[in-house]
Write a structure and sequence with these properties.
This protein has 334 residues and is mainly alpha-helical. It contains 13 helices and no strands. The chain has helices spanning 3-22, 28-51, 55-73, 80-97, 99-122, 124-130, 133-140, 145-148, 155-176, 182-204, 208-241, 248-280, 287-314. Helix 4 crosses helix 12 and helix 9 (155-176) packs parallel to helix 11. 35% of the residues are buried.
Length: 334
């Protein structure tokens, strides 16, 4: 594209659009003209961004298109209905759409944690490299550090701390996925290593049942949220490599907006798992009751994703913002 020729050919339309936007009242014909000019200018902006990006011209047209969009669609305010739609359609649809990434991530990560646990639990020399024998006994004995960890602080403050830490980990998986997914793999491995160490040490002490009774009530939902975040981060990283029929800029914008929405939704999921970890895990309930609560929470989340999310995804919801709020793009051939 010859940018100078393009600007010369369309400058009059942009100036006319700017003139119409400055007027307080428009006739019917002028309103129709404004809509047509807005659509054409949005197309011009997309063409320039994809073919001949010029920062100054792109900035001017972006402002012009944004003003025109506000004039055409009106100023939109967020409402409680937006929150309801997000929780009912947008978030579960986004999680459902990324299931081909987070389900394999969950299976492989669980396998890695199990193998690490087996390796640590069956090799005393590996245990000796983790801590001294006295320290290991203190960790794994009845009433030891593994058990008292969950009741070391008041339930409310402990739940808040756990929620904050897990939400940060999930957000890092989503945000850092754009770096080809490599930081996401490291975060996943760190989490699985911590899980494997606990699994291996407690099993070697003959207290695996106690360990599972402490981890499963909150861990099922918590780890699922982490796996969803990691899978979405890996998907975002793959988008950098292969954006498909979309331009890389458009693909990253769409997947990135959906990832931000998922970060908010997963923070709510992790809030629930944090509450279970703070109030249920250290409670005096029987082990079977605590595990039942954890399984119930996990099954409820999966039903939420596969029933509500699947229905919303089949209806065309991707977890992205509404079409009217997105930047205009030029259709591309598959």
């Amino acid at each position: 594209m010859d940018l100078d020729v393009f600007v010369t050919a369309h400058r009059a339309e942009w100036d006319r659009l700017d003139t119409l936007l400055r007027r307080r009242r428009l006739t019917g014909a002028e309103a129709d003209e404004l809509v047509a000019l807005y659509q054409r200018t949005a197309t011009h902006l997309s063409l320039i961004q994809s073919s001949a990006p010029d920062p100054q011209l792109t900035g001017r047209l972006s402002q012009l298109v944004a003003r025109a969009r506000s004039a055409v669609t009106g100023t939109r305010r967020a409402s409680w209905r937006d929150v309801t739609d997000f929780l009912t359609y947008g978030f579960p649809a986004a999680v459902y759409r990324s299931r081909h990434w987070w389900v394999p991530t969950a299976l492989l990560s669980t396998l890695v944690a199990a193998l690490l646990g087996w390796w640590i639990g069956t090799h005393p020399e590996v245990q000796a490299s983790i801590a001294a024998p006295d320290e290991l006994r203190e960790l794994t004995r009845p009433g030891g550090e593994y058990e008292t960890y969950y009741s070391s602080n008041p339930a409310a403050s402990f739940a808040a701390q756990v929620w904050t830490n897990n939400a940060q980990a999930a957000a890092l998986c989503l945000v850092l996925g754009v770096f080809l997914g490599l930081p996401v793999l490291w975060i996943l491995f760190t989490n699985m290593l911590n899980l494997g160490v606990g699994f291996g040490l407690m099993s070697s002490a003959g207290r695996l049942d106690t360990f599972l009774g402490l981890v499963l009530p909150h861990g099922l939902l918590e780890l699922t949220a982490v796996f969803v975040a990691a899978g979405t981060g890996l998907r975002l990283g793959w988008t950098v490599i292969d954006p498909g029929p979309r331009t890389r800029r458009t693909a990253l914008a769409e997947e990135g907006r959906a990832a931000v929405g998922m970060a908010i939704g997963l923070a709510l999921v992790l809030f629930i798992s944090g509450a279970i970890e703070g109030f249920v895990t250290p409670s005096g309930l029987p082990t079977w009751a605590r595990i039942t609560i954890g399984i119930t929470a996990e099954l409820a989340f999966l039903a939420y994703v596969y029933v509500l999310g699947g229905r919303a995804a089949r209806a065309g919801n991707t977890g992205d913002v509404d079409a009217v709020e997105r930047s205009a793009t030029v259709p591309t051939a598959a």
